[in-house]
Amino acid sequence: MKSFEFYEPTTLAEASRLFAEEHAQLLAGGTDIIIGMKAYTETPETVISLQKIPGLAGITTDGDSISIGAMTKVREVELSGDIQQHHTALAEGASEIGSIQIRNLATIGGNIAHASPAADTVAGLLVADAQVDIASADGERSVPIDELFTGPGQTVLTPGEIITRFRLPKPASGSHYIKHKIREVMDLAFIGVAAAVNLDNGTITDARIGLAAVAPTPIRATAAEDLLKGNAPTPALLEQAGETAAAGCSPISDLRCSAEHRREMVDVLTRRTLQYALERARA
Amino acid sequence: MAKLPVSLTINGDEHDLLIEPRKTLLAVLRDTVGLTGTKEGCSTGDCGACTVIVDGKAVTSCMVLAVTASGKEITTIEGLASDGELHPVQQAFINTGGYQCGFCTPGFIMASKALIDENPDRTEEEFRHALGGNICRCTGYTKILEAVLKAAEEIRTTA
To answer: ∠ CA(B5), CA(B7), CA(B19), 5° rounding?
Structure first.
């Protein structure tokens, strides 16, 4: 690992000021960046730890809405009773990251800021309609999670901007996440699919579908969502939703699987994750 | 960069050290403090050989910068035995033969201890899944799981 200057600021303003400099890197849980630094694919001149800034970690519930601090460990997201109950897809996604040892280190803010299209918490945040709160020396702003990413490893964040929390509004009545993978644990997603639905008297009043690793950024399958809204969840409708979601993605072939396989599995897994989400909504 | 003063509490002993920020906790434990029970396997967080317990949580010490562990309670395999008595998890690994070459054993024992502390009532399947971040290249895991289940049972019944 290349040498670097190390800072542990205790305020966001100081962290933002340091992070605005060139060749600066934030350290949250470290499980992505330390691998990069060991491989010399990341060679920052300064590393700024967020671990000493108070108030960035923890899950708080306020009525229907839940706020997750960016420095909250992924393991805590996975085990949170409130997240498991109200945003099941997100808890399931968190539980799919690495191993317990990794999840005790990794943070949800790091998982998102790293901007991997295959991040395991991203589909759950997409279907939760999460708002991403961002702070910098100039103040604060908030962007919807589906507007955060601009490409693989790329976000709308400008130099000095730091993700502080995710705010999840009123939960859907049922949600579910499926990670398509080979190994039981310690694997990256071929694709990740989440669905969240609201049901009223047998009619889908709202539906959200989040897809990971099928496009340059994580995406919502909005055309498939529109098909579902206002209709009863018949097998034919779910099949149509799966086909529409598959048609709307733009996967690549890589060393783990082909674009064709990814597209086919979006079709299959969108249908399947919708079925699980609907079962939970009925329960 | 210049070395930074770091205070690590390792197995109950405080160590005041000067450490380069780029040094991992694993490197400091082994090379600076001389506690070589913690092993370096992949060094990318995948194999679990370097597992130690920090503030009650099992973590891969290769993925932690030592400077960020300042002020935290670190337990390594060397800190498990007390008063000349092995920890029940250590004893169970010996009694069961839950090892062959032994390289992965400290990581397995530390990960298992943290899991049992958290919840000793896991099923075999749950322990198997929860230990997915630890790799053994010799045994096929059968004896390791047997050891973990025996240790969990003993800790349950004596708790």
So the answer is: 40
Predicted TM-score (pTM) of the model is 0.97
Within chain B, residue ranges assigned H as helices are 25-27, 88-96, 105-118, 124-130, 142-158
ipTM over 0.90: yes
Q: Does domain B4-77 have CATH number 3.40.50.970?
A: no
pLDDT, greater one: A131 or A255? A131
Cα–Cα distance between B97 and B75 in angstroms, integer? 23
Residue B155: pLDDT above 80?
Answer: yes
Collapsed DSSP state (helix, strand, coil) of residue A107: strand
| Cβ within 8 Å, pair A49-B68 | yes
- CATH code linked to domain B88-158: 1.10.150.120
Question: What single DSSP character describes residue A157?
Answer: P
Query: Can you read off the two tokens belonging to residue A205?
Result: 């009043």
Residues B133, A102: C-beta atoms closer than 8 Å: yes
- Bridge-based pairing of strands A131-136 and A162-168 is antiparallel
What's the confidence (pLDDT) of residue B1? Answer: 66
Residue A26 to residue A15: CA distance in whole angstroms: 9
In a domain, A54, yes or no: no
Determine the residue among A100, A181, A183, A186 to mutate to test chain B binding: the one whose Cβ has the most chain B Cβ atoms within 10 Å: A100
